[in-house]
Amino acid sequence: MSVLANYAIAIAVIRKGLLYGGIFIAAICAFDWAVRTRRINPFNRVARFFRGSIEPAMAPVERMVVRAGGVPSSAPLWTLVAYAVFGIALIQLLEFLGDIFYQIVVVSQQPSQIGLLAASWAFGILKLALIVRVLSSWFPISPYSKWIRWSYVLTDWLIKPLRRVIPTIGMIDITPIIAWFIIALIQKFLGIP
Fold first, then answer.
1. pLDDT of 47-88, one tens digit each?
2. Which H, E and C letters describe the chain, residue by residue?
3. What is the pTM of this model?
4. Where are the chain's structural domains?
């Protein structure tokens, strides 16, 4: 179990590093935003450094913002948002992998629990497929895309019958939420963690 404890310590160190990195990036983004919006004189020595060193690093974000119809001065904000999303996704992925490793260690010690573990993973994959399906519907992504199709294949058996029964609320389709609760109820009823 010391490997699991070391893994938890590593995640805590990464989390703290991401926090300090986020504070540093937030300070840089705030100063860059102030230079871009002329709240700070753009011709002083520090502002020229930012315009020469930091703005080229934010150029890809700025291009995406402008293509989406935004203003270039919002690039620092979107850079900070992208860093926050990256940090959250990284920590969640590391914790997910840690949970899988922990479950494998427990099953290796108690082989009779392998069926329970497989059922738990199946329900987890179904819930992940629902999340991917919902998030992909917010963007102009085809449901037949090779990156998204799997989520539709795994959840259509539950979503399609619910859509016939449950009407949409305005433009909002609540069937994935209902499907999530149904999966959670089945999981709880079967006693699967």
1. 888 778 877 888 888 888 888 888 888 888 888 888 898 898
2. CHHHHHHHHHHHHHHHHHHHHHHHHHHHHHHHHHHHCCCCCCCCHHHHHHHHHHHHHCHHHHHHHHHCCCCHHHHHHHHHHHHHHHHHHHHHHHHHHHHHHHHHHHHHHCHHHHHHHHHHHHHHHHHHHHHHHHHHHCCCCCCCCCCCHHHHHHHHHHHHHHHHHCCCECCECCHHHHHHHHHHHHHHHHCCC
3. 0.65
4. 1-109, 112-193
